[in-house]
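REQUEST FORM: STRUCTURE PREDICTION
Request ID: SP-0412
Submitted by: Lab K.M.
Chain count: 1
Length (residues): 120
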Amino acid sequence: MKWLWVAITVISGTIGDVLCARGMAMHGELDDFRPTGIARILRYMVTHKIVLAGIAGDAISFFSFLALLSVTELNFAVPATALSYVFKTASARWYLRERVGWGRWAGALLVAFGIVLVSL
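STATUS: Completed
RESULT:
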């Protein structure tokens, strides 16, 4: 059961973060921090479908992580869900079309290797 919660946490967190990144990139840089500017960006976040879908994905990830903690210890849950770094790096490259250098790929592979060690 714990691996099901890990999978739900990782997949929903990855989808949530990627969608939030996509939606906020569509908005552009935040440069107005006056109350009206903050109200404008908050209005954008609660009305933009991609950002809202990302927030929903992150919420699912949060609650599934809580469920994971109910069936396993924290010293397993945190490293196991770090698998999301690998998926987020791949998603940034192929879905968001970001440039991902060899150092980031090496880091993602080291995280994956660490997860294998923790799960043994």
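NOTES: The mean pLDDT is 93.
Reviewed by: T.R.
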